[in-house]
Each structure stands twice: as structure tokens, then as C-alpha cells.
């Protein structure tokens, strides 16, 4: 995959979001308002997408980024499950979105039938599954934030950086389509990227309003 300013900024935004979340957990030692289920989904996304670490070498940068995403997301899940006092502050009652039933299972079925169109290939199916799942993996986190209403600053910045990462990757795709004559278009990736960015739209709007007014960042609570 070729490098350009949009991809680089997208990657750095993704890395920054992880750093912010790790600071949120390690410094505050508090997981309130953070969805474990979203990060379990992201871990599944990275593990299924980056199986090519064992089969194909693209570049040192590419390999390091893949290992970083898997290792840091796994560490976040570990902290929220096992590390005191962090795990003791995790509110499982608020993080109750049925992610296996309503996200993982439908994405797996959709990936299976999508893969059948071009002939079944397990690695390709897992890659497509990761694309579908990443598009909706943030949903449990957004539900948790809506249930709490008020959003802590570092948590808000984490979500903002995650949304920025995906928006910048859309610009990366547009740039590559105009500058690379043999660029291979992946329309499933495009559609899922637009869906994923769209899920952040409401969050971006209320984040902007809170910064404009100088008040606390809050989302409308679920009625």
C-alpha cells in the first residue's frame, strides 16, 4: 500500500487514539464510560485482518503498525478484564449491547456470502469479515456514552481521534484513485468506511457544540 499524507495522518490519528485511551485507563485507573465490548470487537477485527503477518511481508512500517494495533488493543481488553482497580470500575450493566448476536454473527454471515461470489477463500473471507465488523465495532461504545450522557474529556478525545482516522482514510482512498493509475478499488471497503464515519457524525456534532460553548461535553441520553 502506497503512502500519502492522508494515510499517514490517518494512521497517526489511530495511534494517538490508542495512546489517549491507554492514558485514560492507566493514569485515571478508571474504565467508567469505556466499552469493553467495542474493544473486544476491535481486537477481533485486527486479528482476522492481519493474519497476513504470517504469510506476506509488505514493509517494516506495515508490519509494525499491525503488531501495534493487535498488542495495544489486546492490552486494553486485558486491563479492563483483569487489572485492578481498572476492571473494578468497568460498568458491565451499561455496556450491555449484544455485540455477538447483532454485530459479529451478521458480519460473519455477510462475509461468508460475499466471499462465495468470487469463489471461497478462507483468508479473503476473514479479511472481508474484518472490514464489515470494523464499520460497526464502535456501536457499543457510542451506546455506553449515550447512556452516561456526560463524556469525560479524554474519552471524548479518544472517540474524536478514532472518527478522524476513518475520515482521513476516505480522503486517502480518493487521493489514490486520482493519483495511482492502477489503483485497485474495493467498493466493500468504501461502503463500510462511509458507514463507519457516518456513525461518528452525531458524536462530532455534539463535540463541536461543547467546544464552541466551552461547556461540558454531553450527549442526549437514551430515553
From TrEMBL:
Subcellular location: Endoplasmic reticulum membrane
Keywords (A to Z) from UniProt: Endoplasmic reticulum, ER-Golgi transport, Membrane, Protein transport, Receptor, Transmembrane, Transmembrane helix, Transport
Domain of life: Eukaryota
Annotated GO biological process: protein retention in ER lumen; protein transport; vesicle-mediated transport
A single GO cellular-component term on record: endoplasmic reticulum membrane
Membrane topology classification: Multi-pass membrane protein
PROSITE patterns reported in the protein's UniProt record: ER_LUMEN_RECEPTOR_1 (PS00951), ER_LUMEN_RECEPTOR_2 (PS00952)
InterPro entries in the cross-refs: ER_ret_rcpt
Transmembrane segments annotated in the record for this chain: 57-77, 98-120, 126-145, 157-175, 187-208
GO function terms (MF aspect): ER retention sequence binding
Family: Belongs to the ERD2 family.
Protein name, as recorded: ER lumen protein-retaining receptor
Species assigned in the record: Triparma strigata
Lineage, broadest ranks: Eukaryota, Sar, Stramenopiles, Ochrophyta, Bolidophyceae
Amino acid at each position: 500500500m502506497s503512502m500519502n499524507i492522508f494515510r499517514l495522518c490517518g494512521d497517526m490519528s489511530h495511534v494517538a487514539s490508542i495512546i489517549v485511551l491507554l492514558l485514560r485507563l492507566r493514569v485515571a485507573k478508571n474504565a467508567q464510560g469505556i466499552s469493553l465490548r467495542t474493544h473486544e470487537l476491535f481486537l477481533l477485527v485486527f486479528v482476522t485482518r492481519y493474519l497476513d503477518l504470517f504469510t506476506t511481508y509488505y514493509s517494516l512500517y506495515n508490519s509494525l503498525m499491525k503488531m501495534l494495533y493487535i498488542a495495544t488493543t489486546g492490552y486494553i481488553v486485558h486491563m479492563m478484564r483483569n487489572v485492578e482497580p481498572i476492571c473494578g470500575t468497568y460498568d458491565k450493566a451499561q455496556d450491555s449491547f449484544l455485540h455477538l448476536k447483532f454485530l459479529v454473527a451478521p458480519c460473519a454471515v455477510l462475509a461468508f456470502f460475499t466471499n462465495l461470489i468470487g469463489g471461497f477463500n478462507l483468508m479473503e473471507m476473514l479479511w472481508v469479515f474484518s472490514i464489515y465488523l470494523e464499520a460497526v465495532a464502535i456501536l457499543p461504545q457510542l451506546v455506553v456514552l449515550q447512556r452516561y450522557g456526560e463524556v469525560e474529556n479524554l474519552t471524548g478525545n479518544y472517540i474524536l481521534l478514532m472518527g478522524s482516522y476513518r475520515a482521513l482514510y476516505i480522503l486517502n482512498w480518493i487521493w489514490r484513485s486520482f493519483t495511482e493509475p492502477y489503483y485497485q478499488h474495493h467498493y466493500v471497503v468504501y461502503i463500510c468506511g462511509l458507514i463507519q464515519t457516518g456513525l461518528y457524525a452525531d458524536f462530532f456534532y455534539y463535540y463541536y457544540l461543547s467546544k464552541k460553548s466551552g461547556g461540558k461535553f454531553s450527549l442526549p441520553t437514551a430515553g
